[in-house]
Amino acid sequence: MSEELGLLVRDIGDAGVAEMATTPGLAAAVDQHVAALRDLFPEPGTEALMGYLHGFAEEAFQRGWWPDSTRDWEFVRIVAVCWMMRQGAAQ
What we know:
By secondary structure, the chain is mostly helical. Helix content is 77%, strand content 0%.
């Protein structure tokens, strides 16, 4: 992942996690994505989640996705991965 893409993904994740505190609908959507991700990664580690996030973001951008909405699937998925990584760091 390019440095620019990495920074953008980080910014999306940071903004989305912050927005979850004031937007219950976003928090609920992120929770659903977290549940699905836990099925993929029963014991999620930062390295595995970061690898998934890099691949996911690169694929999304290659097919033309751009973060125009905090309600689209890709945005919520990126926020969910970032939230999971933060939770892992907090434990």
